[in-house]
Amino acid sequence: MPRRCGVAYARDKGAGTCVLRNGLVPSRSVEGTLTYRGRVVTANELSTIRALLATPGISRRALSLHLCDAWQWRQPNGLPCDAICRGLLLWLHRAGHIQLPPPQWTTRKAWRPRTSAPPVRLDTTPIAMSLGALGPLVVHQVRRTPDEAVFNSLLAQYHYLGYQQPVGEHLKYLVVAGDRPVACFAWGSAPGALGIRDRFIGWSAEARRRHLRLLVANTRFLIPPWVQVPHLASHLLGCMAARISADWHRVYQHPIYWLETFIDPTRFRGTCYRAANWIVLGRTTGRGHRAPTKQPTRPIKEVLGYPLVPDFRTRLTG
Fold it and tell me: N or C terminus: which one in the chain shows less Cβ crowding within 10 Å?
């Protein structure tokens, strides 16, 4: 069984398109309307933004919060879509449609790429025993906690894909036996369009747009190389399936009905996922939904899924 069940996905950046730093691609239609992350910005809304910009002393954050309130642009947990709105404003600013005020706050921290994490020193003494002898396992959700640095460092040092700061809805888990970490899980937003998954669920494009947030992807799974415990990986996948929907609801105010992951078949067999009853859906085309041709442009991955409720199709297609 492989010690590192590595998975990841990346959004297709297309060719000749303006790609935002978060990997999403805004577009301008033929008719000249402005579209950002699926939202059309009308001429009236653009006028509203310019009118608010005329307010003396208004900051970028205040402008974003005003717009979220005026447009009733809120997340499922009731919080304003402030980050998305600021991204929209910055995109309009860079395209020359508005002129934002100078930023009022800058950080003194040294710049660090989103794919790096400071190393944390850990005990790497081998752990080689049976699952029963390992003792009680405690699963911690470590996002925005002091232990997040340990999680980030483990992925950066020992996962073959390294560490990458997630965007959008995401949770990070550290599994501890005694006082030693033995596994890491990263869960994040599922990709917007995935043919083999979409056909398996049987939903329409409109249903997918409305219910995509009810799916999450296992973007990283790491068992450090010094941990050699048979059946640990599949056992932990079962533990995660039992709790992730409740954790997601606690943080984001909506449940999860479907889990998915991507495995590089040239590196891994996905044995732990299969042992945990994940369903093998097939393989990706290696193109991405904005690929300019039908030729693969990225590694082909095997896709596995796991429904968390028996009637997942009804909930996702309704």
Answer: C
